[in-house]
Structure formats: structure tokens, C-alpha cells
UniProtKB/TrEMBL annotation:
Domain of life of the organism encoding this protein: Eukaryota
Biased composition annotated in UniProt, kind: Basic and acidic residues: 1-30
Protein name: Kelch repeat-containing F-box family protein
Keyword Glycoprotein (UniProt): no
ATP-binding in keyword set: no
Region Disordered: start-end pairs: 1-42
Species of provenance: Salix dunnii
GO cellular component, one term: cytosol
Upper lineage: Eukaryota, Viridiplantae, Streptophyta, Embryophyta, Tracheophyta
């Protein structure tokens, strides 16, 4: 959209049509469905689009010249301005539906259009419309070692933008953190000097806000997103004691976050207290898998929360055949097309969970080094109908150098080995040790 006046406004229509020498030729663009035009913020030479040519004459003025594409008529065609006074203005409702279909990567341009559209974005109403009409777009938010800022990437990692500085204290900035997304909110949980707190980034306003705190503030918990909501379960209170730093209080409580009300809802407690566990959403249930109990023992069981029944179902030995090393990361899991996939750090093997037999099937190695730090520093996420993995490349000679290597694939539980596609993001690369990674779908 041009920085000049809107063509749909009254002033814009007068600018376009004030010098039309022939009123009988007005409405040609408005009435002929075969004609089309577009406007760009640059000022290139005249463009030909669907029988019409467009060129810009100074700020806010455009020339439209049309031809009938008949041989011998080109010499008789003269430039003319278009008059849009006969075209009815779009209703706010229809305009909102059109704007909701614009890619989110273009939203930064909206403030230069008009105040109504800017207000529509900041209020969150535009994102609600996107949700209602089923328009979704994935973004990946990453916090990597050696960087003080969070970065947001588009799905193909072709562009990135730096988020505003998070105004937390130094204890929060340099400590361990958990992240999750709910609607248009990026939730970060970590410890400040006064205790465990939550910071949230709001996409609508491009700003950080503190809170709301969880009902039971926690770290090292499992989390998953479903639609606009997020679920958390387990973890620790953040309290530690003794020389060895033994965890004092491991949780079995669970909560649900609603971004519309900016509030947490208490859920029924799990059967098993656990920390360093992982979460996912599958079969319309919130799964919490693995982790360690209050004695530090490895848990191979999982639990699934059914919102309809408001109850947890215990799934024994879900990770029975999975080797788990000391100080290993929480299970690296992701759900694509309602199938559960796991990245085994010790072998760099990708596996799929076969629900009927309750066993795991190997699908071959992944192209990043999950084994070098026992699963820490690797991002393993679902990205629409693809798996996303980010970390240090397994290649001897890597195109990514010391930066992060990014791969996606479309998994198939019937395949013996998957085809991984590298994403070349050029200068958009961060460190190859990923501290936090969350996918937002809005």
C-alpha cells in the first residue's frame, strides 16, 4: 500500500479523477470485471496488468490507461484517469475480512494506512477474525545462546525480526526459562530475584507485559498448545535446598491459559508428580510424557488429560524402550497430523509412536546433533504439517558454519526413512545452541 492517500477514500478519488477530460469514459475500471490494478510503494515504470497500465504521477496520483487489445487501435488510445466516485465504499465488515487474509508479515505496514486499521490490529480484533475464518500462519520464536534478544521468524526462515528487549531483571535474563505460545501470546516463565514469574509478549502491540502469574508458579514443566489455549503441568516450584540443589517440591498440578482473558484456570491434578517432562496435544487430549519424580527417578509412563471428562488417564511404559541418560533433556517430542514423533538424543534417531501396538518405530537419523549435549540446545517442533529441527548440523562440512542448521520434513509413519529439507536463512542465522523455541499459530 502506498504511503499516499487511500484510493478508497473521498480525497483519494478526487486526486485520481480531477483531470479526466472525458466523463463518458469514467467507470471503465470499476465496471469491467476483466480489468485489475495494483499499487506498490515503489515508483517503477508503467506496469501492464490485465489490459490496464498504471504509472504513478507524484504523491497520491496514479495514471490508468486502458486498451482494448485490438490491432491498429493502440495509436488512438490516450492516457486517462479513473473516477471511483461511482464505486461504493467497502463496509468495515468486508474490509476486515480482506485485511484478515493479509499475511502477518505485512502487518507492520498497517500503521501507515489509517488509524482505524492500526486500532484493529492493536485491539486484537483482526486476529480474532482470522481465527473465526480459519486463516492461520506459523511463526517461530527463538532465544539462542550468546544473544540477549528473542527473535521471530517466518515459517520459511526467510525473514526475521528482533523482539523488544524483555524488561526482566538479570536473574531472569540469565537463568533457565520455559516458553510456550497461546494464541497471539508468547509466554516465558522463569525466576526473578523475588521468585518465579511470567512474562508475556503480545503480537498485537509488539510489547512485553508482566504476568499473569500461574496459580502455582513453576519451572521445568510440560506444556502444549491447542488452538488459542495453552496447557502446563508438573514442574517444580523453583525452590531448591542442600548442597546438591535437590528439588524440594515437585508438582502434579496443571493449568490452562486463556489469552483472551489473560488468566489461568486450575485443572485436575495428575496422578504422578513429575518434572523435566514434556507435553503435546494429540487425540484432543493434553499428554504429559516422561520426566522424573520427587526422588529423581526416571518416569517412563505418561498421562493424558481429557477435557470432556476432566480426568487424567495413566499410560504405563510409554517410554519403556527409550534410553535416558543422566542429565538428559526432557523428551524431544512433536505431533504432526495427530501422530507422535520423538527425537532420541543418544542416537539422533527419529521415531514415531504406533498407537495400536504402543511401540516406537524408527524412521532414520535426523540431520542435527542431538547427542552432543544430551538433547539440550536442540529445537524439535511441529510446524503445521511438517517437523522442524534446529541445532548443530551433523554434516562434516555444513553450509551453516557455526550457526544454527534448520531442517524440515513431512513425516510419514509408513516410511522407513524421511527426506529432510534444509532451510537456507542466510544472515538470519543465530547460534546453533537453542535455549528456547516456540511456534505461534495465529
Amino acid at each position: 500500500m502506498s504511503k499516499g492517500k487511500e484510493l478508497g477514500s473521498e480525497d483519494g478519488r478526487r486526486d485520481v479523477s480531477r483531470n479526466d477530460p472525458d466523463p463518458s469514459k469514467k467507470r471503465v475500471l470499476a465496471e469491467d470485471p476483466g480489468n485489475s490494478f495494483w499499487i506498490t510503494s515503489n515508483s517503477p515504470p508503467m506496469k501492464k496488468m490485465g489490459g490496464c497500465e498504471i504509472s504513478r504521477r507524484g504523491s497520491g496520483c496514479y495514471d490508468f490507461s486502458c486498451s482494448n487489445d485490438r490491432v491498429g487501435d493502440s495509436s488512438n488510445v490516450r492516457p486517462q484517469d479513473a473516477d471511483y466516485s461511482y464505486a461504493p465504499q467497502l463496509s468495515d465488515e468486508l474490509e476486515n475480512l480482506i485485511l484478515a487474509r493479509v499475511p502477518r508479515s505485512e502487518y507492520w505496514k498497517f500503521p501507515i494506512v489509517n488509524k482505524r486499521i492500526l486500532s484493529l490490529v492493536k485491539s486484537g480484533e483482526l486476529f480474532k477474525i482470522r481465527r473465526e475464518i480459519g486463516v492461520k500462519e506459523s511463526s517461530v520464536f527463538i532465544f539462542a545462546t550468546g544473544d540477549k534478544s528473542w527473535w521471530g521468524f517466518d515459517r520459511q526462515f526467510r525473514s526475521r525480526r528482533k523482539l523488544p528487549d524483555l524488561p526482566a531483571d538479570c536473574c531472569f535474563s540469565f537463568g533457565d526459562k520455559e516458553s510456550l505460545c497461546a494464541g497471539t501470546h508468547l509466554i516465558i516463565s522463569g525466576r526473578e530475584i523475588d521468585g518465579v514469574v511470567v512474562w508475556r509478549y503480545e503480537l498485537e502491540t509488539n510489547s512485553w507485559n508482566k504476568g499473569p502469574s500461574m496459580i502455582n508458579p513453576r519451572c521445568l514443566f510440560a506444556s502444549a498448545s491447542c488452538g488459542a489455549f495453552a496447557f502446563v503441568a508438573g514442574g517444580v516450584t523453583g525452590t531448591a535446598g542442600g548442597v546438591t540443589g535437590t528439588v524440594v517440591d515437585v508438582l502434579n498440578s496443571a493449568e490452562k491459559y486463556n489469552p483472551d482473558t489473560k488468566s489461568w484456570e486450575d485443572l485436575p491434578r495428575m496422578r504422578q508428580k513429575r518434572r523435566l517432562c514434556s507435553g503435546c496435544f494429540m487425540d484432543n487430549k493434553f499428554y504429559v510424557i516422561g520426566g522424573r519424580n520427587e526422588e529423581g527417578m526416571v518416569l517412563t509412563c505418561a498421562e493424558a488429560y481429557d477435557e470432556d471428562n476432566k480426568a487424567w488417564d495413566l499410560i504405563p511404559d510409554m517410554l519403556e524402550d527409550t534410553p535416558i541418560a543422566t542429565f538428559q533433556s526432557p523428551p524431544l517430542i512433536a505431533v504432526v497430523n495427530n501422530e507422535l514423533y520423538s527425537l532420541e538424543p543418544s542416537s539422533n534417531q527419529l521415531k514415531v509412536y504406533l498407537k495400536k501396538s504402543r511401540t516406537w518405530k524408527k524412521l532414520g537419523p535426523v540431520p542435527v546433533r542431538a547427542d552432543s549435549n544430551k538433547g539440550w540446545g536442540v529445537a524439535f517442533k511441529s510446524l503445521g504439517n511438517e517437523l522442524l529441527v534446529i541445532g548443530a548440523s551433523t554434516s562434516t562440512v555444513s553450509y551453516s558454519g557455526d550457526g544454527m542448521a534448520i531442517y524440515t520434513c513431512r513425516p510419514d509413519s509408513e516410511s522407513e526413512e524421511l527426506l529432510w529439507r534444509p532451510l537456507e536463512c542466510g544472515k538470519n542465522r543465530l547460534s546453533n545452541f537453542i535455549l528456547n523455541c516456540s511456534v505461534m499459530v495465529a
